[in-house]
Amino acid sequence: MKILLAVDGSAYTKKMLAYLVTHLEMMGSEAEFTAINVQLPLPLRAARAAGKEMVDRFHDDAFKATIAPIEKFFGKHGLKLATKMVIGNPGDEIAALAKKGKFGLVVIGSHGHGSVKSLVLGSVAQRVLASCAVPVLIVR
Asked: CB of 109 within 8 A of CB of 90?
């Protein structure tokens, strides 16, 4: 099964990864993992002032800082990991890649905000649930 892991480097990502490695039997021995890191675009004014090269370097550096400990974690557990960085709305981009990449499962860590707070603030996990055509495992 192809499994898409939504990662942002937060404590919630770490909890999700810890859960994942303690429940590998649930994923099957043929599981293929891909970590997606979705970064918000810089404000237009800042991007124009900085220039494309600097903006690209900013996103690349942020991606490397986020993904390096995750790659190390997977290596330590003897698991292979593909990675992908996308710039855009996290919920929309995760759901789009899940469909386009024909993933069988999306795994995401959640902050676990209460329902009223989530309605006001929005939530990547809620957006993925609403937009995704494949099963989603949310780890709180």
From this structure: no
Q: Report how far residue 90's alpha carbon sits from residue 86's, in angstroms, rounded to the nearest whole number.
A: 8
Question: For the chain, what are the domain ranges?
Answer: 2-139
What are 102-111's pLDDT values in tens digits?
Answer: 999 999 998 7
Which pLDDT tens digit goes with each residue over 13-53? Answer: 999 999 999 999 998 888 999 999 999 999 999 999 999 99
Question: Residue 80 burial by CB count (10 A; 0-12/13-18/19+): exposed, middle or buried?
Answer: exposed
What torsion do the CA atoms of 60, 64, 67, 70 make, to the nearest 10 degrees?
170
pTM above 0.70, yes or no: yes
- Report H helices in the chain: 11-22, 24-27, 44-50, 52-76, 90-100, 115-121, 124-131
d(CA 33, CA 74): 10
CATH topology of domain 2-139: Rossmann fold (3.40.50)
